[in-house]
Each structure stands twice: as structure tokens, then as C-alpha cells.
Amino acid sequence: MVIKVRKARSEKEAAMREKMIPELYANEYNSFIGFEIMELSSTYSKARIKADSRLHNTYGSIHGGALLSFVDAMAGATASMSGYYATTVSANLNFLLPAVNTEYIYCECMKLKTGKHILVFDIRVTDDEGNLLDSGEFSFFASKVPVLGDNLKFGK
């Protein structure tokens, strides 16, 4: 399912979205967890996943590993919107409340800093009521592989 996002601020942002969003949806894991992009830019992004029972842990809430990988995928996409594919350097997610009694889990990524090679994002994970479930900080390394380039493979 594609949710309508706000109009791109520039032609470059529109072109990167046009490339990134299909790549995110084509990923089998993202498809499995029900990844839905609500907003995607280099400074702010938002996505959601359905609180599907296939993602539950033994205790009936969404498994922390599923939440961490969801956030990592969204934050990585946000970092890549800066122009170069990015890879995770560090990931810190504080699990504050269990993800229960909600239809969707939302992830918001807000840019804190962009350096020459490192990008840092503030992360907020909420439920349908806006309750803060998880918070964290993710750092990414911007590769030399441009998002709008012809070559999608790292190391080439």
C-alpha cells in the first residue's frame, strides 16, 4: 500500500523518492513486515507497519528485533535521501513501552546532524494513540554510491 506523501520540495528530492520508494517496497523483509511510507525526505521521514501477530514475541507484543529492523530500514532510507546510499554505523533504540493494543506502529526519523560522512537521526516509535513506545539515535555512513547513479551495488 502506498500512502500519499507531501509534494517534494525539489526535482532532486522527487527523483530520489521515485527511486527509493520502489526499492523499499521491493525488499522482501519490508514487504513481510508491512512497511508503508508516509513521508520521505532527507530531514524527516515517517513510516508505519501493521501490528501483525507474525511480528509478536512470546509475550504478545511486537518483537524488539522487528521494531529495530523496521526503524533501521526507515532511518537508512532517510539517510540515503541525502544523496548517497547509507549504511548503519550505530543503532540505539530504547524500548520504553510494549507495542500492544494498536493497529499500527509508526516510526519518525528526524535529522540531528549531517557531517562529511556521518549522518545522525533522532528516532521516535509511537502507537495509534501517539504514545511513545521507543526512542533512539541512529548513525549512518554515507557511501560513495549516489542514489541517482546507475550503479546500485556497493564497492563498484
Automatic annotation (TrEMBL):
Example GO molecular function: 1,4-dihydroxy-2-naphthoyl-CoA thioesterase activity
Domain of life of the native organism: Bacteria
One GO cellular component term: cytosol
Thioesterase domain ranges (all copies): 59-132
Keyword Ion transport: no
Keyword Chloroplast: no
One Pfam family per UniProt: 4HBT
Keywords: Hydrolase
Family: Belongs to the thioesterase PaaI family.
PANTHER family (alphabetical): 1,4-DIHYDROXY-2-NAPHTHOYL-COA THIOESTERASE 1 (PTHR43240:SF5)
Protein name (record): Thioesterase superfamily protein
